[in-house]
Write a structure and sequence with these properties.
Structural class: mainly beta
Distance between the termini: 112 Å
Helix content: 10-25%
């Protein structure tokens, strides 16, 4: 097997060199060494032809493929593949000088493996480089040499948002120290966390710039220094934006931004998403809330989401949103591919704000019991027209049977049909799928198989299209008998990796454990690790992760506090899972350090900083471990090494107890690295990370050195207290003060907190933002200036620990001792309460005593005075920062001293001091109430300095159960004015209470006493127990009601209005206890002053009720409430004058607040719109209606609280029918007005003696002048000499009978008629002879009259349409007071013919108006 290394330059479309002298490694599977010497195989030639196919592929495609093929997982390609032709020659020359020839390089290359175009296995290459550099250092270790760059920096041109890595290889003896510069300015990774990463591994130095922006365009230099000299290598990085994204910037450090660019927003993260757990197939949402200033809806912050440091892009499986004060990531259909570390990066004006948390995705319920979980990370490689290589990662098997193989399925894009590709399960995690159609797109998925069944399918792969590609890309597939199969190389035949090494589990948090292990001895293309856990005593293991994890350390979350666990690890490659590692030692997960915790060692110290150096020694300090392991850290061990060596040497054999140490016997000018290990009773923990290289040189500056040991106390939402230690190196004069600087986490813009230096070594910082993290530093000041800043503190979040309590100042209720007390919200067995005054620890001091019980610690003052004033603080050790402080002021101390005196000199506590109340009969009771009284209590009342005793005029008593002491004064007079005092003695306690009753206070008490005395006298006779008030009944009758008491049968009650007596229809019954005066049809006429007088022989009582103003309005509103609720719907009625809308109700009066509206506009009463009503209804009439009056009408009755609304829609057919009826009634009224009629003058009965003359004369009217016809017994009377008929002036009609005879007796009638109608009037004439008795007048004596039908007195012709009769539930029937009552239709009046009888008197022809109700009834 032969590896060939080629060099090529990849150019852009315009000839610009983007990546020069890139080395590409190709594998020739079938080529031997002789073939390499004599010629190339066909496959090898196709491999070489890959670089020359510029005609078949575009330059951009070639660039993309080359970049992808040589991309590392996290960084750019290694340094030895980044040289120009000239640099290659220089490299070979240098290699010869150090004894490394071409054979060594070929042997090194032979040990390398390459990957497909998806990724180059750079880890193996780096391992070989490290081994080679280690050998080189060993050869040259003892030869002094100036720094020399074996591999210099090379320039890069990259796209925006991509990482770039600068490499250089340096040799020299001693090993040089390399510092990085950007345009001559040192590169400080702490200034922009996450932006820069500096690495130094075995002589290969690198600077990684993550996610470049245009402002990263600059000249970068690496400066290597040792004691023999300095060497520099420079290279330029150019960052370009894609087309359309703006031009590249070569000058300024910051690209041009508009005033509203999203990167100018100030963003602070608040609630952050925690470690999360999901299940396959479900969905999950990760949310971070934030505060954005300014908050612009159209300019949301720039948010990026990463999974395992890979940028995520929106898709169907990944939904992102930012805005509304939150950034969220939604995974709608979880798969194990989604497991990993998720990071949210928000760009702000100060840099970036980040938060990360792990997402665990567990297997869904198996398709069959015991079936394995689904595979993951299904990807397609070597995509060709006739086959695709599908690869995946195996699932974790914990308690399931081992996996025996996999099935691969494919689905053509656009369909839902999955086809199984292999008949028998394939045992490795790769499979070539053939039988594809050229140009068609496919998806792939994989299912795992074991003895219990088949797993659920994996998430489908990305869509791939079967297209013909270069044969040279088929690096892992060969064609056998027309089909393709996997190439298994010699180093792949070893199978699964070996088991991981020693597994160590240590406590991490309250519900998590930190697991570490050693990598397998034989990696064999390792994909990652699966970690399993088990509760001690249980048989079943559970999976801690469901996606291979690449590192050798893992935090297991979601554990149950109090349980004990063991862990094991398995390695994973394409052949499956390795053997399980040995189990870790059991570890208990405790919510706080508890039982068994004393056997844990402490975690590593951190934050090693240099405090001083004199040229032969260096003083260093460090921060204590974050976890003490359950017992106090009592030992520190320091190791040192030269910065250019790998061997650590112990500094101290005896333990150091302080967190500071001076390391002696150092060489001046040499760089040293240090590390520290902490120990406790359980042993020594892991060493810290190596410090940065520190140069041993004498400090000679006049300013002081850095302060150190920065710590925090009393961290709250908006404040904290920072403490520090004085610098070891003071400079040329003593330290006089300190400045404290702070900055938000991730920002390099520090703000000085105190404008003037403080002399003490603590400072309270206020004005912090809740939830924001800050870093601090301290600078010491002396007479010569401000010294070096201290090492940056750990980031501290301005947020109080949940349940945090403050120090309570109080006084012991039993002893009277003044104390300060704190109840800790969190504590462990090793925790101690450390009290300080003004942040100086309180040692054994006679002024105070400290006692601790459980979670509470109390500091008691033995003899408190002004010397004890100050700020007291307490810290609870071995917690997450439980602390508090309290400032004891003089006022607070005086208050507590008074309380202490009261406890030590007790008094009788009072619930209520001396007070008074006026009783009935005018008696006055003076009383007080003690908290508690004993049976042996004694007391006395003193009035105006004279003791009073119980006797005539006053009664004194007490009640031990209630603690009440009282004195009742029977006669409270003007002489009772003065001061009242009660003195109490109860055992050792005593007290007194006084009440001053003088001036206005006494006058008010005396007035109340006299009133109660009169009330008592009044109630001796008949009296009102309740004075007059009003009620309204359901029929809207207003009732004036009063209640009486102490009455007898002889008691009387009289009603008056404005001093005039009212005699009701029903006399009041005082014996019933209640009397009422009804006011029916209430209106403004009922205004007045009403009075009820109750009396008998024992006396009388009077009650007055004034109905006016607000009282009158309240009554009207009460009536309106009942009337409005009873109001019917609006009813339509037509009249000759127009169209009327009526609403019937229990009672209506004009005083009610009634509003009529037309189309929501208020209607005022006018000639056009008339508004009125009666006691039964309210109406509104539209006179002479037109189309303008169409529309929606409503009536509103307001009762002051609620509005009762009734509506009617007068439009459409309703209006048409109403208008036609109005026209008909108008015409009928006109006809009624102008018809012929008898106005007057005719009697009903005439009795006359014969021989007399009878004259029947009447006045008639009609327009036009009517015709007049006379009848006798229904026969027309003709004018003769005996019977003369006249009609004068069209007004006077006469029938004169000369010398009447008995034959003239009969029924006479007159018919007056014109074209509009007429009228019949009947007269009965009786003629008697002389001397006869005058007969009684009788009507209808004529014989024909017997058959005359009896008709109503006021008949009317029938209506053309029936009149609807309103039901009880709809509209009440109109009463006789209604202005237009409905008439009953009757048949038409008969025409006067000889055959028909004469119609009755006063029969009118026009039809009277009728009612109509909406909707208009249909006409028949």
């Amino acid at each position: 097997m032969l590896y060939i290394v080629l060099s090529a330059s990849i150019h852009g479309a315009e000839g610009e060199q983007h990546s020069s002298s890139e080395r590409v490694i190709f594998l020739l599977p079938s080529a031997s060494a002789s073939q390499a010497a004599s010629g190339w195989s066909a496959t090898s030639l196709r491999c070489l032809n890959f670089l020359g196919k510029s005609s078949s592929k575009s330059v951009s495609q070639a660039q993309a493929q080359a970049t992808e093929a040589m991309a590392e997982q996290a960084y750019t390609v290694p340094v030895f593949r980044q040289r120009t032709a000239e640099e290659t020659e220089e490299y070979q020359r240098v290699s010869k000088n150090v004894g490394k020839g071409l054979a060594v390089i070929q042997e090194e290359l032979h040990r390398m493996r390459i990957a497909t175009k998806a990724q180059v296995e750079s880890l193996e290459i780096q391992k070989e480089v490290k081994g080679m550099m280690r050998k080189r250092v060993d050869l040259l270790e003892e030869i002094p040499k100036l720094p020399d760059f074996l591999v210099a920096l090379r320039p890069h041109t990259v796209w925006e948002k991509t990482p770039v890595k600068l490499f250089c290889t340096v040799e020299g003896n001693p090993r040089p120290i390399v510092k990085w510069y950007k345009d001559g300015v040192p590169v400080d990774p702490l200034s922009a966390p996450g932006k820069y990463k500096i690495e130094n591994k075995y002589g290969v130095h690198s600077l990684i710039v993550s996610r470049c922006v245009v402002s990263d365009t600059a000249e970068y230099s690496a400066v290597a220094t040792n004691q023999h000299g300095t060497a520099t290598s420079k290279a330029k990085i150019i960052v370009k934006r894609p087309a359309g994204a703006g031009e590249s910037c070569h000058l300024g450090l910051v690209p041009h931004l508009t005033e509203i660019h999203a990167s100018k927003l100030d963003v602070s993260l608040l609630d952050r998403f925690p470690v999360s757990f999901g299940v396959e197939g479900n969905s999950i949402r990760l949310v971070c809330t934030m505060v954005v200033v300014p908050d612009l809806p159209n300019i949301p912050p720039i948010a990026q989401w990463y999974r395992d440091d890979k940028l995520l892009k929106p898709s169907k499986l990944v939904e992102m949103s930012v805005g509304g004060g939150a950034a969220s990531l939604t995974l709608p259909h979880l798969a194990k591919d989604d497991e990993g570390l998720y990071t949210l990066r928000i760009f702000t004006k100060d840099g970036t704000a980040e938060h990360s948390a792990y997402l665990f995705v567990s297997d869904a319920a198996p398709s069959a019991p015991g079936a394995p979980g689904a595979p993951m990370s299904v990807k397609a490689y070597d995509i060709n027209s006739d086959y695709v290589l599908v690869a995946w990662k195996p699932p974790n098997t914990v308690n399931e049977a081992p996996i025996t193989g996999y099935f691969v399925d494919r689905c053509e894009a656009g369909t839902d049909t999955w086809v199984q590709c292999n008949d028998a399960p394939v045992k490795i995690c790769k499979y070539p799928v053939h039988g594809l159609r050229v140009g068609h797109s496919y998806y792939f998925r994989v299912r795992a198989v074991n003895s219990s069944g088949i797993s659920r399918p994996s998430r489908k792969s990305d869509k791939v299209t079967a297209l013909d590609a270069a044969e040279s890309e088929r690096l892992q597939v060969i064609k056998i008998e027309g089909k393709y199969d996997i190439v298994i190389k010699d180093d792949d035949l070893e199978g699964v990796p070996s088991a991981p090494g020693h597994v160590v589990a240590t406590r991490n948090t309250k519900s998590s454990v930190f697991v570490q292990w050693e990598a397998p001895k034989h990696l064999k293309h390792l994909m990652g690790y699966y970690i399993d856990g088990r509760v001690v005593g249980a048989k079943e293991w559970f999976a801690c992760n469901h996606k291979p994890f690449k590192h050798t350390r893992f935090v297991v979350h979601g554990l149950i506090p109090g349980e004990t666990y063991v862990f094991r690890v398995q390695a994973v490659n394409l052949f499956g899972l390795s053997e399980e590692s040995q189990e870790s030692s059991p570890i208990a997960v405790e919510p706080a350090l508890g039982k068994g915790a004393e056997y844990a060692t402490p975690s590593s110290p951190f934050g090693i900083t240099m405090l001083s150096s004199d040229g032969s020694s260096i003083t260093v300090a460090w921060k204590s471990p974050k976890h003490c392991g359950g017992s106090k850290v009592n030992a520190y061990y320091i190791d040192k090494r030269d910065a250019d060596t790998l061997v650590w040497k112990e500094v101290n054999l005896n333990a150091v107890t302080e967190r500071m140490c001076t390391v002696e016997n150092l060489k001046e000018g040499t760089f040293y690295e240090f590390r520290v290990t902490a120990g406790n009773m359980a042993g020594v923990g892991l060493p810290s990370a190596a410090s940065i290289p520190m140069k041993c040189e004498a400090w000679t500056m006049e300013e002081p050195g850095p302060a150190y040991d920065l710590s925090f106390s009393e961290v709250r939402s908006h404040s904290l207290v920072i403490l520090w230690r004085a610098p070891i190196y003071t400079g040329a004069s003593a330290v006089t003060g300190y400045f404290v600087d702070m900055a938000k986490k991730g920002s390099s813009e520090f703000v000085t907190v105190n404008q003037e230096a403080v002399s003490h070594r603590y400072l309270q910082v206020t004005g912090l933002e809740e939830g924001e993290s800050y870093v601090f530093r301290v600078r010491a000041v002396n007479a010569h200036g401000v010294g070096k800043p201290s090492q940056l503190s750990e980031p501290v979040c301005a947020k109080a620990i949940p349940g945090t309590k403050e120090i309570v100042a109080g006084v012991d209720e039993e002893t009277g001792d003044v104390f300060l007390s704190l109840e800790a919200c969190e504590i462990c067995e090793t925790s101690k309460f450390v009290w300080s005054k003004n942040y100086k620890p309180i040692s054994d001091c006679p002024r105070v005593a400290v006692t601790t019980k459980g979670r509470t610690s109390r500091l008691t003052f033995t003899n408190p005075d002004k010397d004890d004033l100050g700020k007291y603080s307490v810290i609870v050790t071995d917690t997450d920062g439980v602390s508090a402080s309290h400032t004891l002021t003089e006022d607070a101390l005086n208050t507590m001293l008074e309380l202490s005196y009261a406890i030590r000199h007790p008094i009788v506590p009072l619930k209520h001091g001396l007070n008074y109340e006026v009783l009935e009969k005018g008696h006055v009771r003076f009383w007080l109430q003690a908290v508690k009284l004993s049976p042996s209590v004694s007391y006395r009342f003193i009035v105006n300095d004279k003791e009073v005793t119980s006797g005539e005029g006053q009664k004194i008593s007490h009640d031990v159960a209630t603690g009440i002491i009282q004195m009742t004064v029977d006669h409270f007079t003007r002489a009772s004015e003065g001061t009242y005092t009660v003195q109490i003695h109860d055992g050792k306690a005593k007290t007194q209470s006084s009440l001053v009753l003088v001036g206005d206070v006494f006058k008010a008490a005396l007035k109340e006493a006299e009133f109660q005395r009169k009330e008592h006298i009044r109630k001796q006779g008949p009296h009102f127990s309740e004075y007059l008030y009003f009620t309204v009944t359901e029929d809207c009758t207003v009732m004036l009601v009063c209640k009486v008491a102490n009455v007898k049968k002889e008691s009387t009650l009289h009603w008056y209005k404005d001093d005039e007596e009212i005699v009701p229809d029903t006399p009041p019954n005082v014996m019933s206890g209640s009397c009422a005066l009804p006011l029916p049809l209430f209106s403004r006429k009922d205004h007045g002053v009403y009075k009820a007088v109750l009396g008998d022989d024992r006396g009388k009582d009077t009650s007055v009720f004034d109905i006016s103003g607000k009282v009158f309005d309240d009554i009207i509103n009460a009536i309106a409430q009942i009337a409005g609720a009873s109001a019917s719907e609006l009813v339509l009625q037509c009249t000759p004058e127009g169209i009327r809308l009526q609403c019937y109700m229990n009672y209506y009066t004009e005083e009610m607040k009634t509003v009529w509206k037309h189309k929501e506009s208020k209607i005022a009463s006018s000639e056009k719109m008339r508004i009125g009503g009666t006691a039964e209804m309210a109406w509104m009439q539209i006179c002479d209606p037109s189309d303008k009056e169409k529309g929606h009408y409503s009536m509103e009755i307001s009762d002051g609280v609620k509005t009762h609304t009734r509506t009617f829609d007068l439009s459409g057919q309703a209006y048409t029918d109403a208008y036609e009826e109005y026209l008909r009634l108008k015409a009928a009224a006109f006809a009624e007005k102008n018809r012929g009629r008898v106005v007057g003058g005719l009697p009903d009965v005439v009795t006359i003696m014969e021989e007399k003359s009878l004259s029947l004369t009447c006045t008639v009217w009609g327009e036009p002048t009517p015709e007049v016809t006379w009848f006798k017994n229904e026969q027309e009377v003709a004018s003769t000499e005996h019977t003369r008929v006249t009609f004068d002036g069209g007004k006077f009609a006469s029938l004169v009978i000369n010398k009447v005879t008995p034959e003239d007796s009969g029924k006479y009638s007159i018919n007056v008629r014109n074209k509009y109608g007429g009228e019949f009037v009947e007269i009965t004439v009786s003629v008697y002879r002389h001397g006869e008795k005058i007969p009684e007048p009788k009507l209808g004596q004529a014989k024909a009259a017997a058959t005359t039908p009896v008709l109503p007195k006021s008949p009317a012709p029938p209506s053309k349409t029936p009149t609807p009769t309103p039901s009880k539930t709809q509209t009440p029937a109109p009463s006789m007071k209604s202005p237009t009552p409905a008439s009953t239709p009757i048949s038409k009046s008969p025409t006067p013919t000889p055959k028909s009888p004469t119609p009755p008197r006063s029969v009118k022809s026009p039809t009277p108006p009728r009612f109509m109700k909406s909707p208009t009834p249909p006409r028949k």
